[in-house]
Amino acid sequence: MAGLFVRSGDDFVRVATNAKTGKSSCALGVLLDTKGPAIEKIRRGEAYCGESFVQDTAYIAGCEPIRDATSKDISILRDRIREAAANSRLDRSLNPNSASRPFRHLE
Fold it and tell me: Which domains does the chain have, with CATH numbers?
């Protein structure tokens, strides 16, 4: 899931995403967690790659600051994947004959 957050005062607000809430509406207007490890690195001018949690679900996330001509952070580009899905994909790629690949006979 990808998202673009734009600075609003000291906060960053999601203005574009492919994440959904419910059946069809995009999850816009959500604030980036100001106490999480990602924002700490962004405020230091660094990218973040690591674990994040949304409603007790673990994700692997990457956040990259976008700066203006004066090097001020004006927005953040974030991409994330559920940790369980990432681990499953990794397992399938490392163990091509594992039972977790039900269609391996078609490869």
Answer: 2-106 (3.30.450)
